[in-house]
Design a protein that fits this description.
Elements lengths: L1 E2 L2 E2 L2 E2 L4 E2 L4 E4 L2 H4 L10 E4 H12 L9 H14 L7
Antiparallel strand pairs: 1-4, 2-3, 5-6
Helix pairs in contact: 2-3
């Protein structure tokens, strides 16, 4: 799956290929509570987070603080991708 990462309304010059789109996400209230057993993780999608960021940067949706979570998900995918070579 090839996805373009969008920063400040402009596409980055390099195309990034992700070999996986879905990931397990732990809800924030459980993520930082390490004294309780982990509940049920939810399923997230990198392509969905990138689309939300694209909509945000294009002015198609209101900027929200939660967009930083989407950015974090995308950066985590880039950093942990076993197929990343040159970026």
């Amino acid at each position: 799956m090839d996805l373009l990462v969008v920063f400040g309304g402009q596409a980055a010059p390099n195309k990034i290929a992700f070999d996986r789109d879905c990931f397990w996400d732990i809800p924030a209230d459980e993520r930082y509570d390490n004294f309780e057993p982990l509940g049920s993780p939810t399923l997230g999608q990198i392509s969905e987070d990138i689309e939300r960021l694209r909509q945000n940067s294009a002015g198609e949706s209101e900027p929200i603080q939660y967009a930083l979570v989407w950015v974090g998900n995308v950066l985590r995918a880039i950093g942990s991708s076993p197929t990343m070579k040159d970026f």
